[in-house]
Specification:
With 391 residues, the protein is α+β, with helices and mostly antiparallel strands. The chain is built from eleven helices and twelve strands. The strands form two sheets. Strands 1, 2, 3, 4, 5, 6, 7 and 12 form an eight-stranded mixed sheet that branches. Strands 9-10-8-11 form a four-stranded antiparallel sheet. α3 packs across α5 and α6 crosses α8. The model has no long low-confidence stretch (mean pLDDT 94).
């Protein structure tokens, strides 16, 4: 069966009660931001490509209040799986990365926010699974940014600026060279919509994804191979090297004729395969967006399967566990498409499934892969303020 996560109301109640117990006052402000799953468009955000994620109903929530000091911050995280200590104190006028690691995402957003941040107290809770490839880091960054808007009374008007602040926080304080997709969708997510992000122009378009008879099934393989950290920069360099051999400045200029020219220009089959994935995945993502616009969900499913084959064979970032989950899903009645999602070498698959078949699909996949954790989702809203009301 699907994993039973704490509801939003349960998260909020827990956060408010813990804040009152910890700081002996009621919180005055609250904000949240979601995790995400990418429907299609993998490993092309750093190649000027298109990606098509959707925001998840799982969120990271921050409640708190200004504490009257000019710069003292006190934060307590209740997130399962976060490294210790779970409480930290620091000053906003002297910020540096360190331990615990979870606090670096918060510090990074404060550092890059662009407006003075006064002292505050806060509690962090989440139902986004940590380390599952559903972007718990971006959820924390964007929730922090929304919380800072309330703390400071100042905000950045452009959604792209908000996403870039959070991305920079991850680059500089968490030291992870992530693309822009995760922060963009966490900021801009919209219920019953996917988000087509142009990673070259940093613009985005909401694509309607409101099918009452369909759900998105996320299967967490619960494995993560050590290759992921070292292979990510390797893939980026291979893509860049292939682009130079084609004589192009961007993969947005590339097409099948350029790929054929690359095949003649080099005997390096690895570079050819990497370029083939990027060029074909950019095209698939645009086609998938068109299919969603036309409510052609079977077409979306076929493109998802093609995407997984390319990620497995040409980009070589899948693994036996992910391949098995996709194979098991595609043998189930009611599954329109399935693929790995995220960085690869473990993590999750994403499948498009008929709502009336979801229980049977989960049962059949679980019978063939006992280690999986399942999440059933619909496209949800992005970051938002929370009215605490009488809490």
């Amino acid at each position: 069966m699907a994993a039973q996560l704490p509801s939003f109301d349960e998260l909020l109640t827990k956060a408010v009660e813990t804040f009152q117990e910890t700081f002996q006052k009621k919180p005055e402000i609250a904000a949240c931001a979601p995790g995400r799953v990418n429907l299609i468009g993998e490993h092309i955000d750093y190649c000027d490509g298109f990606v098509l994620p959707m925001a998840l109903p799982m969120v990271t929530l921050i409640v708190g209040r200004r504490n009257g000091t000019p710069d003292e911050v006190n934060i307590h995280t209740l997130c399962d799986g976060a490294d210790k200590p779970d409480k930290i104190q620091f000053n906003t006028d002297y910020l540096c990365s360190g331990m615990p690691k979870w606090a670096n995402y918060v510090k990074g957003v404060i550092y890059n926010y662009g407006f003075p941040v006064p002292g505050f107290d806060a509690i962090i809770v989440t139902n986004v699974p940590l380390g599952g490839g559903l972007s718990s880091s971006a959820a924390l960054e964007v929730a922090t940014l929304k919380f800072l808007e309330l703390v400071t009374g100042k905000k950045h008007e452009k959604d792209s600026d908000k996403a870039l602040i959070c991305q920079k926080a991850e680059h500089t304080f968490a030291e992870c060279p992530c693309g822009i997709m995760d922060q963009f969708i966490s900021v801009m997510g919209k219920e019953n919509n996917a988000l087509l992000i142009d990673c070259q122009s940093l613009t985005a378009e909401h694509i309607p994804f409101n099918a009452s008879d369909l759900v998105v099934l996320i299967c967490n393989s619960n494995v993560k191979h050590n290759l992921s950290a070292s292979e990510y920069p390797t893939r980026r360099k291979q893509c860049s090297d292939a682009l130079k051999l084609m004589g192009l400045s961007s993969y947005r200029e590339a097409n099948s004729s350029h790929l054929k020219a690359l095949e003649k220009a080099t005997a390096d089959t690895i570079l050819i395969k990497r370029a083939r994935h990027v060029i074909s995945e950019i095209e698939r993502t645009q086609k998938a967006a068109d299919a969603l616009r036309n409510c052609d969900f079977e077409g979306v499913g076929k493109l998802m399967v093609e995407s997984h084959k390319s990620l497995s064979s040409d980009f070589e970032v899948s693994c036996d566990e992910l391949d098995k989950l996709v194979d098991l899903a595609m043998k189930c009645k009611g599954v329109l498409g399935s693929r790995m999602t995220g960085g690869g070498f473990g993590g999750c698959t994403v499948s498009l499934v008929k709502s009336n078949e979801i229980d049977n699909v989960i049962k059949q996949i679980d019978a063939g892969y006992h280690e999986a954790t399942f999440y059933v989702c619909k496209a949800s809203d992005g970051a938002r303020d929370i009215d605490l009301g009488e809490n």
